[in-house]
Amino acid sequence: MVAHLTIFIKKLDSLSNEDFHTYWSTSHPKIWLNVKIVQEKVLKYSQVLSPKQLHLRELFHVDHDTSAALKAHGLPIVEYDGGVDIWAATTEDLMSIFQDEEYNRVVVPDEESFLKRSEAVMMIGHDEDKWVDGKVFEV
User: Fold this and answer.
1) What is the DSSP letter of 126?
2) Burial class, 72, CB count within 10 angstroms (exposed 0-12 / middle 13-18 / buried 19+)
3) 111 within 8 A of 39, measured Cβ to Cβ
4) What is the pTM of this model?
């Protein structure tokens, strides 16, 4: 069963939303995807495009205007600036990435240049499809 990791992140206070999303969208993936263990272990890496800001190629999980409107209606909203989904064959494969010397030497300093690593939160598990291609998915 494929392992799925979601990481919610917050931008550094010193960056504008646009600068954060531009860097995260264009520069960071070049560094992350160039690490050998990532190339070997990751099956899929995804950042979500906001339909409202496709023209900026702003990648994120947070639409601040819609989030504020939902919050005004009493709905709980996640207080993060973005999120990323990573899939690998096993949870061990995912965890090995974060223990890798090259990852820690190359990717971690890059992440520290645009996001608050100490405030990132992770959720790990396995996808359980319930609706696929317009039909109820049954095992």
Assistant:
1) E
2) exposed
3) no
4) 0.82
